[in-house]
C-alpha cells in the first residue's frame, strides 16, 4: 500500500492536468472524495476538472465545491494527462467513455475492483474512498481545510451508514474525530444529508414498506418500487437512499433485497446483509458487485423469477 500511495503522490506532483471521475449514480463517498481531491490538486496549483455521468443528488448540494462537478464538457478528454477514478470497481460503472491514452489511477475500497488502472490503490479494509483521500492528503502534507474536511467527513459518514455498518473501524473514527477537531460540524452535515426530505419522499418510503415481504424463516426480506410510483409522486430513484436499511432493523432478518424498477422490467437491486452473508458475491452473479454487507446490481426480467433465483442461491448455499 505504501508503495502505491507514494507512486500516486509522485504522479500528482509530476503531472499538471487531471480529470477526476467516479461511478454513475454518485453517492456521498464518490462525490465527497472527488471534491476533496479536486481541492487538494487546486492547492498544488494543478488543473483538475470533475466529470460524472449523473447529476449530484440534492442531499449533497451543500458540499463545498459541488458546482465544480460537470455532467458534460466541451473539453477534449484526451488532453488530460491523468484520469483519477475514485470509488469505482470497474470502468463500465463510470457510464462515461474515457480515452485510454490517459494514465488511469484507480483509488477504491471495493472488494471486487478489477484493477483497471496503470496504478491501482485498492483497499477493501477502508471504510470509504474518502478515508483513502484523507491518507493521500496526509502523504502530500497538505493542510486539511474546511472544504476538504467537510467532503471527507461526508464520504466516511455516508459509506459507514453514520458509523453503524461493519466497515466502521477505529481508524475511520479517529479520522472523523480529527476532522471534527479541525472544525467540521457533524450535526450540520447530518442535517443536510438526512433531514431535508420532502413529503413525497416520505410517501415513497411508506409505499415501499407497505408491501414488505419476509420469507417463512424470517431471514430474507424484500421491498420493491414499481416504475409508475416515481412518476406519480414526482420523485427520483436517488430519493430511495437508505430505504433498504429499514427491513434490516427486524431482528430475524439477515438479508434485504430492494428492487427499484428503473424502466419496465429493468431493476436496480440493492442488497444488504447483517453478519457473515457476503451479498457482493450474490450481486456478482448478476454482473453487479459491491461490499460484503452492501452491494448492488442491475437486472432485466420479471421481478418474481429474479427474486426466486436470489432466494434459492441464499438458501441452497446456506449462506446463513
Ligand atoms: P447501493 O445499493 O447503495 O446502490 O450500492 C451498495 C454498494 O454496491 C455500493 O458500494 C455500490 O458501489 C455497489 N453497487 C451498487 N450497484 C452496483 C452495480 O450495478 N455494480 C457494481 N459492481 N456495484 C454496485
Ligand atoms: Mn465508497
CA(first)-CA(last) distance: 33 Å
Mean pLDDT across residues:
95
Major sheet, described briefly?
6 strands, parallel
Instruction: Note the beta-strand portion.
Output: 15-25%
Tell me the total number of β-strands.
12
Give the H and E element order.
HEHEEEEEHHHHHEEHHEEHEEH
How would you summarize what this structure contains?
The protein has 320 residues and is α/β, with parallel strands linked by helices. It is built from eleven helices and twelve strands. The mean pLDDT is 95.
Task: Outline the structure in words.
The two termini are 33 Å apart. The mean pLDDT is 95. With 320 residues, the protein is α/β, with parallel strands linked by helices. Strand 11 and strand 12 form a beta hairpin. It folds into 2 domains: 2-194, Alpha-Beta Complex (inorganic pyrophosphatase (n-terminal core)), CATH 3.90.1640.10; 199-316, Diaminopimelate Epimerase, Chain A, domain 1 (Roll). It has a 6-stranded parallel beta sheet. Strands 7-8-9-10-12-11 form a 6-stranded mixed beta sheet, with helices on both faces. The longest helix is centred in the N-terminal third of the chain and has 16 residues, at 28-43. The chain is globular and about 60 Å long. Helix 2 (28-43) packs parallel to helix 3 and helix 4 (146-159) runs antiparallel to helix 5. 37% of the residues lie in helices and 19% in strands. It binds guanosine-5'-monophosphate and manganese (II) ion. Residues 89, 93, 270, 288-291, 294-298 line the site of guanosine-5'-monophosphate (5GP).
Amino acid at each position: 500500500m505504501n508503495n502505491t500511495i507514494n507512486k500516486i503522490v509522485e504522479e500528482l506532483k509530476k503531472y499538471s492536468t487531471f480529470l477526476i471521475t467516479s461511478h454513475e449514480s454518485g453517492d456521498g463517498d464518490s462525490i465527497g472524495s472527488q471534491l476533496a481531491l479536486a481541492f487538494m490538486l487546486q492547492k498544488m496549483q494543478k488543473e483538475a476538472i470533475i466529470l460524472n455521468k449523473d447529476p449530484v443528488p440534492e442531499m449533497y448540494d451543500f458540499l463545498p465545491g459541488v458546482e465544480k462537478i460537470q455532467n458534460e464538457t466541451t473539453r477534449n478528454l484526451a488532453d488530460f494527462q491523468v484520469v483519477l477514478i475514485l470509488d469505482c470497481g470497474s470502468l463500465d460503472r463510470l457510464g462515461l467513455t474515457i480515452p485510454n491514452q490517459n494514465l488511469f489511477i484507480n483509488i477504491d475500497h471495493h472488494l471486487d475492483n478489477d484493477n483497471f488502472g496503470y496504478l491501482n490503490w485498492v483497499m477493501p479494509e477502508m471504510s470509504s474512498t474518502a478515508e483513502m483521500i484523507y491518507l493521500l492528503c496526509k502523504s502530500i502534507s497538505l493542510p486539511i481545510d474546511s472544504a476538504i474536511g467537510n467532503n471527507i467527513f461526508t464520504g466516511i459518514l455516508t459509506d459507514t451508514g453514520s458509523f453503524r455498518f461493519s466497515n466502521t473501524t477505529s481508524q475511520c473514527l479517529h479520522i472523523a474525530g480529527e476532522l471534527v477537531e479541525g472544525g467540521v460540524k457533524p450535526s450540520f452535515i447530518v442535517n443536510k444529508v438526512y433531514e431535508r426530505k420532502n413529503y413525497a419522499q416520505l410517501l415513497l418510503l411508506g409505499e415501499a414498506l407497505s408491501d414488505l415481504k419476509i420469507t417463512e424463516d424470517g431471514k430474507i426480506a424484500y421491498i420493491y418500487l414499481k416504475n409508475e410510483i416515481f412518476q406519480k409522486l414526482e420523485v427520483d430513484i436517488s430519493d430511495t437512499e437508505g430505504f433498504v436499511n429499514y427491513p434490516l432493523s427486524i431482528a430475524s432478518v439477515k438479508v434485504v433485497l430492494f428492487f427499484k424498477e428503473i424502466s419496465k422490467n429493468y431493476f436496480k437491486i440493492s442488497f444488504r446483509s447483517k453478519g457473515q452473508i457476503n451479498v457482493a458475491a450474490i450481486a456478482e452473479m448478476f454482473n453487479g458487485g459491491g461490499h460484503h454487507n452492501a452491494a448492488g446490481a442491475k437486472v432485466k426480467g420479471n421481478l418474481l423469477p429474479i427474486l426466486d433465483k436470489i432466494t434459492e442461491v441464499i438458501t441452497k448455499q446456506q449462506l446463513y
